[in-house]
Each structure stands twice: as structure tokens, then as C-alpha cells.
Write a structure and sequence with these properties.
About 70% of the residues lie in helices and about 0% in strands. By secondary structure, the chain is mainly alpha-helical.
């Protein structure tokens, strides 16, 4: 099953990890733009495409080994720095 899920993720591309929420898609201000850019083949409603991508997302999240395949499975080198600055840690005080 894990191999099938990996293939689904490959076919779906980054949408599995980055699909906007339903709240965003239904938002009066940005919903239209999201639907415009999520549109696929002519004749396929964007809502059906989103449902298909949600299914892939749910299947992928059920398999623990595929979680890292979706988003790289690690921290970027800047993440710890961002966390330190975001949370207002007093680095100089900690070094003393």
C-alpha cells in the first residue's frame, strides 16, 4: 500500500501537502482566485479535482512512512533560527 500511496503523491504533485483549506477555497475574497489556479482539464469542475486531492491527502496521512515523502521529512536550516527569533528568546542571556 505504501508504494501505491507514494505513486499517488507523485502524480498529485505538491498539492497533497499544500492544498488550501476548504475555508480558504470558500472565502469570498480569495476563493475565486484559488479556484482559478486550481483548475485542471476543461470539463472537470475544480470542486471534483479538490475532492480527488483530498482523498490522496487522507490516504497519504494514514501511512506514516509517506509523511516524510510529502514534505521532505526534516527541518530546513533556517527553522531553528526562525523559532528562536519568533519566540523572542534572549540568546545572550542564555549563553551566560
Amino acid at each position: 500500500m505504501a508504494q501505491a500511496t507514494r505513486l499517488l503523491i507523485d502524480v498529485a504533485g505538491g498539492f497533497v501537502a499544500d492544498l488550501p483549506s476548504d475555508r480558504d477555497i470558500n472565502h469570498p475574497e480569495i476563493g475565486g482566485l484559488l479556484k482559478k489556479y486550481l483548475k485542471g482539464a476543461t470539463g472537470v469542475p475544480v470542486e471534483k479535482r479538490i475532492k480527488m486531492l483530498r482523498l490522496v491527502e487522507k490516504m497519504a496521512m494514514e501511512s506514516a512512512d509517506t509523511i516524510s515523502d510529502i514534505h521532505g521529512g526534516g527541518l530546513s536550516s533556517g527553522s531553528p533560527r526562525n523559532d528562536i527569533s519568533r519566540n523572542g528568546y534572549q540568546l545572550q542571556e542564555k549563553l551566560r
